[in-house]
Each structure stands twice: as C-alpha cells, then as structure tokens.
C-alpha cells in the first residue's frame, strides 16, 4: 500500500497527501497537458478556463468511482480554496465557491473574480517511486517487472472502462510508482492524472443501463502525440483509443524504446516510426498510411509470439480489431502464466 503523507491546508493537522492542481498552469504544446505541482510551489490565480476544466474533469472522474482499485490513484478528498476560504469539494454542490468553476468550465470563460486565487487540493495516494519513466529507465530490463507492470496496467484499464471512464491521456508520465515496503516484491503502479478523462453517461435508450465505453464516441482530439491512436487525430474515437495508448506503452517498455522531450530533453518511453531523420508518432503514421506494417519486435528476443500478436492487435489502425480492456486483461494473464519462455 502507499502511505499517506502528513500535511495540512488549514489549522486542522489531519493525515493527508496533497497534490495541488494549480488552475493557472498551461501547456505550451498543441494538445492540453496538465501539470501537477506541490503546494510549496506557490498558488496562482485560475486565469485560464481550460485549466479550470482540466481540474474539474479530474475531480469528476475520480469522484465518480464508487470503489477502489490498487492500480488506480484514489481520491480521498478534494478541497477547494478561494483566497482564505476553504471548503470541501462535493460533486453537484450548489456552493458559491463551486458553481463559478462549473460555469467557467461550461462557458469557456472566467465566471469569477479573476483577482481571487482559486486552488484545488487533491487528497490522494502518496506515491514515493516517481513515475513509470523514471523507474523503468533507471533499472536493468527485468522480465519479472515487465510482467508485473503489464498485468497491473491492464487490470487498471479494465477497472476504469468498467466504471465508464475513458482516460484519454495514458502515458508513462501519468503512471505513478509506489515502492514495495520489503524491497522484494515489485512496486505498485497507479494510473493517475485524469484531467483529460471522460466519464461516459448512461445509455440514451435506458437511463438505468451503463454506457458502453466502446460505443461512446468522442470528438475532442486530446492526449499526448506519441500515444494517441489514429482515430484520435481525426476526432472520432471510443475507449479503444486507451487500448492503443497502452499498446505503445507496453511496446516501449518491453523494448526500451525512448523518445526525447523537446522541452526538457528528458528520455521518455514511447514508440515511434522513423522517417529519415524525422520521428513520427505511431498513430499519426498509421493515419497517414493505414496499410503500414509496424516492424515489431525491433529486438529479436524482446517478446514471444503471443505478445507480438497481441501488440499488433492493440496497435491496429482499425479500433474494431483491438481487444477491449477486459479481453486484454485476460490475454495478458494467459501470456504471463501459461507461457514458460519468452524466447519462442
């Protein structure tokens, strides 16, 4: 289990872990990318409506989950702060603090006094092992770690899709690591950062029937380029886009394929297609050339035949050819426990 860090936002010194969603943070890229900052970094006013929306999306997604999963970050509590006023955040609240944020998100323009400082404090699991990039790229390749991480991530995704949540920004940066207490077991992964996620509503024909995330089409092209499915670039996609993103992550992890962040120069796990000197995201390359065959594995003994076949299906240009999250979880369990060797 992950430990809770002791911090307090007011005079009440309760056991909490605070990661602040600074509503003023902005992404300089073509797609919205959220940034979490520690409380010590300072608090800035929420001047960008899109960042208010990112914060609320994360709150709405995590608060919609009625149960917990060991591999999904758990929201214990959300606290809304405006200047010196602090209030517990409740979905559907009609409080004078909460409603202006909802109005800002819906209208796309600031609906509160811009001179005020708004901050959302998320009380959640404390993850002490950094993110998946840091963990994988600072250690020697390990079949045991790879297997553990694949099973954990597929289980997390099946849980999210069962709860009608499409993440839309799966990438190693958004997968946090909790170190094992004994140093023997593999660490626990936590899928986090739900600012771009979408909670699918109930079926239009039957309000009591949960929506199928694989039949709920979305049109907002969002995510991070190197993990985006071809159909996301076009703006017409379902939860199968999450399957594609996870396929890129697993492929990169198994073969230690890295890309370089142009801003930070940091090495990141991520698959790509090489065109001369140009590095092109897999989804973009498949959109431009749907008949292109991905040459994987790149390294001869990085995966067995079943894993190769599964990755090809996860990275298929046609979403219908990808397994859903529940099929994926089952197949990875079969690969992990029924294949005695990864060299065949």
From TrEMBL:
Its EC number is 2.7.11.1. GO terms for biological process: negative regulation of G2/MI transition of meiotic cell cycle. GO terms for molecular function: ATP binding; protein serine/threonine kinase activity. It holds the Pfam family Pkinase. It catalyses: L-threonyl-[protein] + ATP = O-phospho-L-threonyl-[protein] + ADP + H(+); L-seryl-[protein] + ATP = O-phospho-L-seryl-[protein] + ADP + H(+). Residues 20-49 are annotated as: Disordered. This is non-specific serine/threonine protein kinase. Belongs to the protein kinase superfamily. Ser/Thr protein kinase family. GCN2 subfamily. PANTHER family: EUKARYOTIC TRANSLATION INITIATION FACTOR 2-ALPHA KINASE EIF2-ALPHA KINASE -RELATED, SERINE_THREONINE-PROTEIN KINASE PDIK1L. It comes from Pelobates cultripes (Western spadefoot toad). It is an enzyme of class 2 (transferase). The lineage of its organism: Eukaryota, Metazoa, Chordata, Craniata, Vertebrata. Residues 1-337 form the Protein kinase domain. InterPro entries: CC_SR_Kinase, Kinase-like_dom_sf, Prot_kinase_dom, Ser/Thr_kinase_AS.
């Amino acid at each position: 289990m992950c430990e809770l860090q002791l911090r307090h936002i007011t005079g009440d010194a309760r056991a909490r872990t605070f990661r602040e969603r600074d509503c003023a943070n902005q992404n300089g890229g073509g797609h919205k990318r959220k940034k979490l900052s520690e409380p010590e970094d300072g608090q800035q006013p929420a001047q960008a409506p899109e960042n208010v929306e990112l914060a609320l999306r994360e709150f709405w997604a995590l608060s919609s989950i009625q149960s917990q999963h060991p591999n999904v970050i758990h929201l214990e509590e959300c606290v809304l702060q405006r200047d010196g006023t602090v209030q517990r955040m409740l979905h559907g609240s009609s409080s004078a603090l909460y409603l202006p944020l909802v109005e800002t998100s819906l209208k796309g323009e600031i609906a509160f006094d811009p001179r005020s400082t708004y901050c959302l404090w998320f009380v959640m699991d404390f993850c002490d092992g950094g993110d998946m990039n840091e963990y994988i790229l600072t250690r020697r390749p390990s079949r045991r770690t790879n297997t553990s991480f694949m099973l954990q991530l597929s289980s997390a995704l099946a849980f999210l899709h069962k709860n009608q949540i499409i993440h839309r920004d799966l990438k190693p940066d958004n997968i946090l690591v909790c170190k094992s207490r004994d140093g023997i077991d593999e660490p626990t992964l936590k899928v986090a950062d739900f600012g771009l996620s979408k909670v699918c509503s109930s079926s239009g024909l039957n309000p009591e029937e949960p929506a199928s995330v694989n039949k709920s089409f979305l049109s907002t092209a969002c995510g991070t380029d190197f993990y985006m499915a071809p159909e996301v670039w076009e703006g017409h996609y379902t939860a199968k886009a999450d399957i594609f993103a996870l396929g890129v992550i697993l492929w990169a992890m198994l073969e230690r394929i890295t890309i370089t962040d142009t801003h930070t120069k940091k090495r990141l796990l991520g698959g790509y297609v090489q065109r001369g000197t140009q590095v092109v995201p897999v989804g973009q390359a498949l959109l431009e050339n749907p008949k292109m065959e991905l040459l994987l594995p790149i390294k001869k003994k990085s995966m067995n035949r079943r894993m190769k076949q599964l990755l090809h299906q996860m990275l298929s240009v046609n979403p219908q050819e990808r397994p859903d999250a529940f099929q994926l979880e089952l197949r990875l369990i079969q690969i992990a426990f029924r294949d005695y060797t990864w060299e065949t």
